[in-house]
Amino acid sequence: MSFKYPASRPALDGRELEYVTETIRDGWISSQSPVVQRFEEAFAAYHGTVHGVACSSGTAALTLALRALGIGPGDEVIVPEFTFITSAWAVTYTGATPVFVDCGDDLDIDVELIEKKITPRTKAVMPVHVYGRRCDMATIMELAFEYNLRVVEDSAEAHGVRPVGDIACFSLFANKTVTAGEGGVCLTDDPRLARQMAHLRAMATPADHSYLHKNLAYNFRMTGMQAAVALAQVERMDEILATRRTIEKRYDTLLAGIPGLTLMPPRDVLWMYDVRAQQREELRAFLAEASIETRLFFKPMSRQPTYFHPDWRSLNAGRFSEDGLHLPTYTALTEEDQAYVAGKIREFYARAPSGRAVAAHGG
Ligand SMILES: *Cc1c(COP(=O)(O)O)cnc(C)c1O
After folding, report:
1. Strands 122-125 and 150-154
2. Would the pTM count as exceeding 0.90?
3. Which domains are delineated in the chain?
């Protein structure tokens, strides 16, 4: 089903096509393309970090970061319950064990709960800036200092938020704020970590091409075409982030005071606008009929078959997963579009205070 108002849509109205065309015309389509390095430098500079290592996905970025920090079998990594599943999978891929911590009311990891999950095996903590809300990094960095933990930020939903951990990992998937279609980036100030991630990304290929590979590594490289798209995006990141800020403020105003709808705390950068909605499933169906696509919140890691634990129901993360909803969020969304979305939501709750919205709507 295709929606007039999709949940997200990439902003490809800059120089993306021009840069891709140049890349193909020059024949630099592989990861050896100079555009990859240009993108890495531009993305790092934008975030105030020294090194950028581009790779094939956000999941690959997290995996490279953990491996470069030496995390592996026998180690534990603190990961939030409320996140996208590959935050945890990246830990599992390395042979280490993710240890889950519930979220607070802003959906980010509850820093008050971290300390009691730290054991002698804990090597790192992975704060995830969920839906563009920066975690309490001051407290996390203090804990990291006290317990000698490495910090890998999952910044997949927080482009523009300045990294402070050892490595910050971004996704460039098509629904993220800056995209290459598929792709990822690791940012760090540590030249040794940057070198190690670049090495692991490229099959641990030795400089002399002797085909002697000293590490178990990956092919997680980014192509020149992907970097061309991403570079064009980074060049107008200020504009993209400002437009998203405007979209956030408009939704805040348009959706205020609707009974049945709960607004969420402000974001540091807007990824997908999030709300909590009573009668969520009925509301989704009503909006879908009005050609408005919505998306659900994450489910807790303890609810996932990979990590199942029956206690997920008592978690904050479990509660949010039951009624959280994302509204259409993309830079081409106009004020009129947003007023239409908000109007439909208002209409739903005005008609159906008792949960019979779909029947009422269908006649
Ligand atoms: C999107 C996302 C990822 C994964 O990124 P991919 O590029 O899809 O691999 C990881 N963590 C979070 C929080 C995400 O939103």
Report:
1. parallel
2. yes
3. 16-234 (3.40.640.10), 237-351 (3.90.1150.10)
